[in-house]
Structure formats: structure tokens, C-alpha cells
Amino acid sequence: MHSELINRKELGNIRQLKQKPDGIDFYSNDYLGLGKNHQFRAKLHELLREYPDAIMGSTGSRLISGNSKIKMEVEEVVAGIHKTAKALIFPNGYAANLALFSCILKKGDVIILDEKIHRSIYDGCRLSLATRWKFKHNELDHLAELLKKASCRTTGNVFIAVESLYSMDGDIAPIREISELAALYDAKLIIDEAHSLGVFGIDFIQTLDLKQPVFARVLSYGKAMGLYGASILGSTTLIDYLVNFSAPFIYSTSMSDFSFLALKESYSFLEEQPQLVSELQNVIQNFKVIYNGNNRINPGPIQPLYFTNLLELNQTVKRLSAHGINCYGVSYPAVNIRYPCIRITLHSFNTLNEIQLLTTLL
User: Fold this and answer.
1) Is the peptide bond before 333 cis (omega within 30 degrees of 0)?
2) Which domains are present in the chain?
3) How many helices and strands (H and E) does the chain possess?
4) Distance CA 21, CA 6 (A)
5) What's the confidence (pLDDT) of residue 353?
6) How far apart are CA 26 and CA 183, in angstroms?
7) 131 forms bridges with which residues in the sheet?
8) 325 DSSP assignment
9) Which of 178-187, 203-212, 279-288, 330-339 is least confident?
């Protein structure tokens, strides 16, 4: 362990825990500002006064003492909002992906992943006996080639897994086209919506009006929703299967009732405050107009700035920090070793002056 830590330090990509600094936020996932929204916080305080006992721990797995009427009602609300049969709530997106992929993939199955999909999905797949392939990021021809190969080689199920909005590159997957390919080759599509949830409204996938059903969707509440937790959405059979066979669900203590109530409140708050999405889009547009140093501006809040070497990246992060701007430098193994980047994230609360300061310094 010591040797590996020394090696990482020499490479310049050692990770260390630090206190959250003061300054202008261009690095958190609080895209709509709910994490610091005083109105939202006040609603949660009111909720706590109404349900004071809900803040305590659940005392066990949901299959033993950790379930409640509140939890089941909130899951019904989430399923209704996203127009799916059932929802199952987990403590975080990592746990949800681990639970889903480790459970449903069997020996003889093939799972085809976008090469830039989140680490939690890779880890879930590693716990299964399925064959795992990667297709080039957002490249439909390569995906089609692998689907054709899988249809000839396996008698098991074929799955495709993508993110709707990618956490590091910030670009959007061609979901419609991928859905059509899945239907053509009888594959099951799974979409991780951690970074798109709330950013384009309550339900980005519904706006696409897909002709084919999605096998499973994973939503994470630790980004635009301002809280923590995650949902797996799918058929009654899928959710019942997870309850019966998914180890991360069966053997984990449930979140508190208050955590579930807070998630419900977050949905209601965003429905009452649609201008937050418009404000975020205005910030993205302002960034696009002012900043000409990047050839591509993403439609979402994540705007990566790529570097050729770590030294230059780390120096830039330090210089931005010296001017009161918090950005995060991302390097291997979180991203490809050839493409370290500053992951700039934009928020509904970033002002024009803040954007001008950031772009001027860059």
C-alpha cells in the first residue's frame, strides 16, 4: 500500500481529504442550488417539526425492521412522477448501481457499456459472471457492431448501459438512437441519470418520448436535487427481484424516514420552482457567449477543460483558487490518463460577474 501511495504521489495525482474551502463554486454538483437554498431548507425544517421521530435511524434492513409506510408511499410517489411501475430507493447512486448490476447480470449474459460510464457500474458488473464489453464513447456504429457480435455469441440476455449526461465529459448520450438499436437487437437498455435529473426538468427521459421501454433507470439525488439517496426505476418484476436477490439492498440498514420525506419534498420544490432550470440554462448560455477558449460548450452544467499535462492543470487550479474560484482538477484513474481536465460545473446561482471572472482567468 505504501509503495502504491508513493507512486501516485510521484505521478502528481495523490488524493487527500480537505475541508470545503470558501469561494465561488464552480466545482460542486449542486446544479440548481438546492444545497444552499434557504427556502428549501426552511421547508425541510418544517418537515422535521411535523415528523420529529423520522430523523432517527431505521434500526435495520427494510426486510426486517427498517421499512415503514412513509418509505413505501414515497417510492409510490417517485414511481408516479417518472411514470414507471415501481421505484426502489437506496442510500446513494453507487449503492444503487452496485445492487442493480451485480444482481441482474448472469453467467452467459453480455453487458455492453459506454467506455466513459461511471465507476460504480463497472464495479457492479465485476461482481457478476456476465461478459463485459465496452463501446467507444457515444459511437453508435461501434455499439451496433458489438450488439451484432453479442447476438451471434450468446444465448443469454444482452444489456446496454449508458449515462444520460456524462459526469466528466458533460455531454449527452444519443438515447433515442441507442434505444432503437436496443430494440433492433433485443437488448435491454439501462440508463444512469445521476447528472441529468432535475437539470432539464424533473424527467429528462420523458421529454425524449422513447418508442421502446427502458429496462431500468437509476436516479441519484445527490446532485441537482440537493440531498442524497438514489432510486432504481423499473417494472414490478425487476423491483421485486431486487428486493429478493440484491445483496446490497437485503443486507444494508435503510435510510431514515426523514431522508425519504426530504426526497419527496425536493421533487415538490422543483415542481414549484421551474425557474431554477431556466436560470441554470441562462448561466450555461452566458458561459458559452463569454468563453471562447473551448471549442465545445455542453448543453448541461458540466464543462471540462482539458490539459496536456498534470503540472499545468494543477497550477491552473491553484491560480483560480488564489482568486477565490473553486474548480476541481480530475486526473487518472478518474479519467483517461491522456486527458486530465478541470471539471467546471455551472449552477443556477452563478452570477454574470463570477462567469466573467472565471473566463477571464482561464
Assistant:
1) yes
2) 2-30+274-361 (3.90.1150.10), 54-271 (3.40.640.10)
3) 14, 12
4) 26
5) 97
6) 39
7) 110
8) E
9) 330-339
